[in-house]
TrEMBL record:
Residues 330-540 form the NFD4 C-terminal domain. PROSITE patterns: PROKAR_LIPOPROTEIN. This is Nodulin-like domain-containing protein. It comes from Sphagnum jensenii. Keywords: Membrane, Transmembrane, Transmembrane helix. It is a multi-pass membrane protein.
Amino acid sequence: MGISRVKRILKDRWLGLCLGMWMQACGGISYVFSLYSADLKHTLGYNQEMIDGFGTSKDIGGNVGIISGLLIDVTSAWFVLLVGGLLHFIFYFLLFLAATGRITPSYWQMCGIIMIGTNGATWFNTAVLVTCMRNFPSDRGVVVGLLKGFIGLSGAIFTQVYTAMYAPNTGPFLLLCATVPPLVAMVSMIVIRPIEAPKRKDDTDKSKFSTLYVVGIVLAFYLMAVILIQDMFVISKTMSCLFMGVMLAILLLPGIIPVSWPAYRTSNKQSMERKSPSLQAKSATTIDVSPKSLENLLDTAKVFTLDTPSKHTVKLGHDHTLLQAATTQDYWLLFFAMGCGTGSGLTAINNLAQMAESLGSRSVGAFVALVSVWNFLGRMGSGYVSEYYMKQYATPRPLFLLLVQVVMAVAHLLFASSVPALLYLASILVGLAHGAHWTLMVATSSELFGLKHFGALYNTLSISATVGSYLLSVKLAGYIYDRQLATIQAAALATGKILTGPQKCIGPQCFRSTFLVMAGVCGLGCLALSCLVARTRKVYKDLYKLQQAKDHLTSKGSSTELHTTHITSGDQTCEDATLTDSPVLKANGILEPKRHRHLAQSRMDNLE
């Protein structure tokens, strides 16, 4: 591999995306809190209430990233990654020292340690997400799905590492958690940076995204299969190490894309240049456009670029500061809906073990595996599907948020039924809907409020999940569970029964009311999203038309894929309307040169 090719790979935005996926795979370490919380409880002498408060500190740190969101807009990605790496290493190392008895901080100091340590992940997430979305502006839904999806899998990935190398010793595992993410961040600092997207889309982009999606899906189902096997059978350390090795090999596969595809792109271009003269002549055509149509097209593009015709909605694509966005109804509708959806989803996920226990089910491991995998699939799939329908049919992305909120409500109703067999389906639905919420929120907010100040906007919207989870977990689920337990204890004492050992709530009444209320909360979220869909429908139609205008006005030069198109006006020729990259053409399968004359007239008539 020559030096020039190495330099080209290092400057490839796809390498940044792959490093971003690996960085995100290290960004969900907070999800493995249950692996070491019991040892912390024993080593530090905490009771269950203190451990719950410790966990709440972890969630606050992992979801509140306002500072990193503000700094990414005024500094750079490498600086944000550096700060995140330092925070993560220092405070997770202190956590390791506390868990192994080397230091004895107070309880509130421990809460601060884990809060700041898990906050390092928000710096990683902000740097990766904002930079990659800016590097892939026309594929932001797909990119967000990939990046957010790997966060969803990070818990399962580190659980496999723990099982293979450290179980049951959590001390050395915490040291691994303290060192690996900062090391990945150091490498990411070199390649994750703003890279201008090409004006014309590479014909291999679709294949690259498809490859990344296939790798992600394979990894997700592989982890689900391994977790279920480990839950049902006794697995040796050797076999666990083998499982981990295969997992790491699959995880590294995305690195093939930036290494191998540049050579393919070059050879493909050379092969197209060697086309026969007759084929080149066949691939060229001319579109006759009247001066009036061309003038209207230019005026339309100008109007869409500078100001949207929709007066009652946020101007799509216009950059908002945090304060400007916070003055709009759209921002608070999105914030409220996210709090309803992700807050209730987190409450369901956090109470899976207790709910299964209350119903006498021993399949907690299976439920957790299903939630983890479908959380990942929801994050990836929602980005891909919503991107397709938005580009092809001008479907508002908030409509997909509305659909997944309905799915979340259905999942809560299935949990409320307390039928053990339905818990599997409910786990799949809650994982799918919870993951989809995060991807769709990121893409929607970037489209409504722009990318310039997106770091701050994204991290403030993320607070809605923490608020919703706190209210629904502590004030609703915890309160109802304790009240039901007190009722059971009072009934037992009334009959003269002596209660010994840890007291647990048994029966469907322990969580039924909670899930019914959360289904109603999701209903309120659906109402908010219905308003958001109505307010943004015209905006997404404007974006769709703008994309069509840009297809005519911004594409330059000859096409290496199919043809060169000329727009003629009087005796002038404008060689700037290559159509092969148009979403409309791709949606309808119209790419033949012989149909371009009819198509161009039709599209311009619509713009008039």
